[in-house]
Amino acid sequence: DEPVVWDPFNFCELYKISGNNPDVAWLREAELKHGRMSMMAVFGIIVQEGGVRDPYWAPVDANWATAPSQCPALAWGSLIAFIGLVEGKYAEGLYDLWNGQTDKRTPGDYGWGKSFLSDDPVAADKMRLKELKNGRLAMIAFAGIAANHFIPGALPGCMYS
User: Which amino acid positions bind chlorophyll a, per UniProt (predicted)?
Assistant: First the structure.
């Protein structure tokens, strides 16, 4: 059975037109990565605005939009170096995903998440689907929080700015 896919603009078929367009495997990799980042971002916003603070970062504003400008340059340099190391380590196989070859690595698998998945394939697939849906929700939530911050009143009742 093929899964039902909602793709009204046929983005999943673009790779058939030209090699300049990514395969669905590449798109899934990007969706999972952005979903994971959004889940962490939304969680961080809720925690920070909820008053939970790390004493080391106490002088930095709790507002997510103004805090980056208050971080020292060394912190930014360390963060960018760490992100570069992580991205470099897990970039292997990305070109293959662009071309739709998933034999080296499945989209979103960085090799350290096996302990979070069940040995049962059905349960593991359900958990992967939950992660995908939660990531999509977090991307929408972050977009809403950002809209509410930059366009005051965009989301009536939203307590995060």
Answer: 6, 31, 34, 130-131, 134, 136
